[in-house]
Predict the 3D structure of the following.
Amino acid sequence: MNVKLKGMVQVYTGEGKGKTTAALGQGMRAVGRGLRVKMIQYLKSTDTGELHAVKLLSPHFEILRLEKVSGFVWNMSKAEKKQLQEEILANWIHIKQWTINPDFEVLILDEILTVVENGLLELEKLQDLLKYKAENLEIIITGRVLPPQLLDIVDLVTEMKEIKHYFHQGVAARIGIEY
């Protein structure tokens, strides 16, 4: 279905749990209304429930991952960070093309703000991508820290704020809930 809509830029940010979950929920809602969704997951390499669920929505919802290097970015060696940065930059050309001439209606860039925060992608590249996207493309971005320079470009910002989390009581990530 080729629905023409005014594409907005949504942001799910903050220290709390639920940014990726919110983006996935928005993607599922879009698929339910006949829109096509492409999600790029950065900095995630574990087998997660969303990978399996989205297969059931294929070809309407697709997840692509940049995962040659695994583990938390703050624990990576300089060489691992450089390898990851090269992969991100190599794929940025394709992502930029997709935003100019998309064959889908919703693009989710999961953890792109974390990529920028850790110096793996220049903020200016993300700013340009958001400014010059196709008019009917909805873009959803996630990550813990929203640079103030993006506030004038984006249309919606939701901050996830942790009030209480069972992780602090020693509860590890659980299959089907956190991953």
User: Anything to note?
Assistant: The radius of gyration is 16 Å. The mean pLDDT is 90. The chain has one domain: 9-169. The chain is about 35% helix and 20% strand.
